[in-house]
Design brief:
By secondary structure, the chain is of the alpha+beta class. It has helices at about 5-15, 25-40, 45-65, 80-95, 115-120, 130-140, 145, 150-155, 160-170, 170-200, 205-220, 235-240, 245-255, 275-290, 290-295, 320-325, 360-390, and strands at about 260-275, 310, 335, 345-355. A four-stranded antiparallel sheet has the order 2-1-4-3. Strand 3 and strand 4 (about 345-355) form a beta hairpin. The radius of gyration is 32 Å and the shape is elongated. This is PpiC domain-containing protein.
């Protein structure tokens, strides 16, 4: 059954809502199918909730992070570039490729690689064109290649730093590829305009949906409800952190003291051998005789004899200490090769635990992270619900 028939059937079969909807049922059905491609259990309610939340985030990006509407990274592609690709994906999911005729190829002889090199100013090493350079690029009209309004400035400004550099180096094949993408997009949109209207799908709404999806992740990170790469925090999250007091940390410690339990010391035995076979034989004897008797049998001494077998956390600096300190209670190792080529056999006899002090840096750090996350989640939900109520949004 063609996709548009499915959409129309879905539109007739889905319930109506008392509130005016931002998106049509056909658009919601399309997005439901898109989401299900990655999350098969994504249901209709999940789709509506996500679209509603995305609209909230789209309203917030204009207020808090408007630069995201231009581009998310200075060296990356523009947001408009990504939106156009996302909309193309939506259209490709809506209509089988066989339905669309191939657009006529541009006459590349009308704009050669020599002309491109002539029209491009010097490459901006700082990734930013001067005002004069922009004016030069704006005067170069590429509409005749695309079938829609496009200047060389439009094309260059939406590119990643890498693509821009390649074009300045004379990569005409890349230029043709980018022009072809623009041409295909505008051709497809123009060709499908009537069908989209009949199916109650708006290109403006598809652009809004695509933009909201693209700014979703960085905005969730901005509000602190999604972890950022490299542990970075937004100014908003830093403001939340500044509101956390010593009393908050103390209360958190009392409620979650078990989370701050740590291994304080172990009682263990260990021995090193020159060969793996000797280590294996010793391991076998430990299982039969016990570690102490095996030491006597092999005329060896416990590496931790000077501390009566006790190994504290602050002692775990050398390789042997690190290995043994991380063993479980009563765990006997198989032969382990040391960095210096010897073979270790070790066994823990007792593992003792303690709690980090309330005033320790470990407690402060972990408690602060948890408190920030809790506060961010609460504030985010409050903001979202207030916005949904104020706008009477319903999808």
């Amino acid at each position: 059954m063609p996709w548009f028939i499915i959409v129309l059937v879905s539109f007739l079969s889905l319930p109506t809502f008392a509130k005016k909807q931002t998106f049509s049922q056909a658009e919601i059905t399309l997005m439901h199918a898109i989401y299900q491609q990655h999350q098969p259990n994504f249901d209709n309610e999940d789709t509506r909730n996500r679209l509603n939340e995305n609209l909230f985030l789209l309203s917030q990006v204009k207020q808090h992070q408007p630069h995201l509407l231009q581009r998310q990274a200075d060296v990356g592609f523009s947001t408009e570039f990504h939106v156009r690709r996302y909309v193309m994906t939506l259209l490709q999911n809506a209509v089988p490729s066989a339905v669309l005729p191939t657009p006529p190829a541009p006459d590349w002889s009308r704009y050669s690689t020599q002309q491109l090199n002539q029209d491009l100013p010097n490459y901006p090493n700082n990734n930013h064109y001067t005002h004069a350079q922009l004016q030069q690029l704006i005067t170069v009209d590429l509409s005749f290649l695309v079938g829609a309004q496009l200047t060389l400035a439009d094309l260059m400004l939406e590119q990643s730093m890498q693509n821009r550099y390649k074009l300045h180096q004379g990569d005409y094949a890349l230029f043709q590829k980018l022009i072809t993408q623009h041409r295909d997009y505008h051709y497809k949109v123009k060709y499908l305009a009537k069908r989209l209207k009949q199916a109650n799908i708006s290109l403006a709404n598809l652009n809004k949906i695509a933009t909201a999806e693209l700014i979703r992740s960085p905005m969730l990170s901005y509000f602190g409800v999604q972890s950022q790469m490299h542990g970075e925090r937004s100014e908003y999250v830093d403001t939340l952190k500044s509101q956390i007091t010593n009393k908050h940390i103390a209360n958190f410690y009392l409620k979650h003291k078990a989370d701050f339990k740590h291994k304080s010391n172990v009682i263990a035995s260990a021995v090193l051998f020159e060969s793996q076979n000797k280590a294996k034989n010793f391991n076998t004897d430990v299982k039969k005789l016990g570690f102490k008797n095996a030491l006597l049998q092999h005329n060896k001494q416990n590496l931790f004899a000077d501390t009566q077998g006790k190994l504290a956390r602050h002692n775990a600096t050398q390789w042997v200490h690190q290995v043994v300190f991380n063993l479980k209670k009563a765990q006997l190792t198989n032969p382990i090769r040391s960095p210096k080529g010897k073979w270790l056999i070790a066994q823990t006899h007792q593992v003792n635990f303690d709690y980090y002090p309330k005033e320790s840096e470990t407690v402060r750090y972990q408690a602060t992270l948890a408190l920030i996350e809790n506060m961010a989640q609460q504030r985010y939900q409050q903001k979202k619900q207030a916005w949904l109520k104020a706008t009477k949004s319903s999808i």
